[in-house]
Write a structure and sequence with these properties.
Blueprint (H helix, E strand, L loop, with lengths): L10 H10 L9 H15 L3 H6 L2 H4 L10 E8 L7 H5 L5 E5 L9 E5 L17 H10 L2 E7 L9 H18 L4 E5 L35 H12 L25 E6 L9
Antiparallel strand pairs: 1-4, 2-3, 4-6, 5-6
C-alpha cells in the first residue's frame, strides 16, 4: 500500500497510516480484493430478492422525505472491512468547531475541543465495542452493504437518514431472516431517537435501532470509501475530509454521509 510518509498530521494521513499498520488493511492486494468481490457478487446472485434491495432505484422508492439525498448503494466482502481502536481514538483530536453549549441556547459557541459526543453519547467511544469485538461481527457476516448520500450541506433534520437505513434493515431481514443483520452502522452520532436527545452514558432507549457511527466502531471511512470506489468502479464513493467544520472558513462546504450494514447470508438460497 502506498501512503504519504511526510510528517503531516492531516486526518487523511493519520487514517491512511492506521490502515497501513492494520493486519486487515495489509492482508489483501487490490487484485485479491477484486477476486473476493466477484465471489461475493456470485453469492448475492443466489438471493434475487436481496439483489433487488441493493439498488439505489429501490431506495428512492421509499416513502421518506429527502430519501433521494442518498446517491449510491453497494456491497463489499465483509472480511476486507477494517476495525481499529486507533480510529476511535481520533475522536479525542482537538479541533475548532461551533456547537450549542446547552440545548436551548440561542447563541452558538466556538470552541477548540474534542468531539463533544465522546464518552457522553451512548453509541460513541468508549461505550461502543472495542475493535476486536467489531472484528468478530464483521467476520460473522458475509457482506457489508454501504449506503452513501450525495454531497449535502444541511443535516438539521436527520430523520430521513435513519428511517432509510432502518427500512433497508427490515427489508433485508424479511428476505434473509431476522438474524441476518449482524451490525448496523451510522454516519456520525446515532440519531435513532431524534428529535429526542440520546440518554447518554451507554444507555439506549431503542437498542434495536441503534446505529453507532462507523468511526465509533473503528471503521476508517476513507478506506472504506476507497474500497467501494475500487471494487464498484464508481469513483464518486471517495470522500474528502473537511477542515474547520462549522466555521466560515470550512472547506469543502459539502460532505457525504456513509451508512453500513454487516449482513450474514443464509447457508442455502431461499432459506430464512
Amino acid at each position: 500500500m502506498k501512503f504519504d510518509t511526510r510528517i503531516n498530521y492531516s486526518i487523511d494521513n493519520i487514517e491512511r497510516s492506521i490502515v497501513a499498520d492494520n493486519p486487515v488493511g495489509t492482508k489483501h492486494s487490490d487484485t485479491q480484493k477484486k477476486k473476493l468481490y466477484r465471489k461475493t457478487a456470485n453469492n448475492i446472485n443466489k438471493f434475487p430478492e436481496l439483489k433487488n434491495l441493493v439498488d439505489i432505484r429501490h431506495i428512492h422508492k421509499y416513502p421518506i422525505d429527502h430519501v433521494k439525498n442518498f446517491a449510491r448503494i453497494g456491497f463489499l466482502p465483509s472480511n476486507i472491512v477494517i476495525s481499529d481502536d486507533r480510529i476511535k481514538d481520533m475522536c479525542r483530536n482537538q479541533f475548532w468547531t461551533v456547537f450549542r453549549r446547552e440545548r436551548k441556547a440561542k447563541k452558538n459557541e466556538m470552541r477548540f475541543t474534542r468531539c463533544p459526543g465522546l464518552e457522553k453519547h451512548s453509541s460513541c467511544p468508549y461505550f461502543s465495542p472495542p475493535a476486536d469485538k467489531v472484528r468478530e461481527k464483521l467476520d460473522r457476516a458475509d457482506i457489508f452493504i454501504g449506503l452513501q448520500s450525495k454531497l449535502i450541506n444541511n443535516v438539521t433534520d436527520t430523520r430521513w437518514q435513519y428511517l432509510t437505513i432502518n427500512r433497508l434493515r427490515e427489508e433485508i431481514q424479511s428476505v434473509l431472516g431476522t438474524k441476518s443483520i449482524i451490525q448496523q452502522f451510522g454516519a456520525g452520532p446515532c440519531q435513532a431517537c431524534y428529535p429526542e436527545p440520546c440518554l447518554g452514558m451507554g444507555k439506549c432507549r431503542k437498542p434495536k435501532l441503534q446505529a453507532p457511527a462507523l468511526e465509533s466502531m473503528g471503521v476508517p471511512v476513507g478506506q472504506l470509501s476507497r474500497d467501494f470506489a475500487l471494487l464498484t468502479g464508481d469513483k464518486s464513493w471517495e470522500i474528502r475530509w473537511i477542515k474547520r467544520f462549522g466555521l466560515p472558513t470550512m472547506t469543502p462546504k459539502k460532505w457525504k454521509l456513509t451508512f453500513g450494514l454487516a449482513v450474514k447470508l443464509p447457508s442455502k438460497a431461499g432459506a430464512c
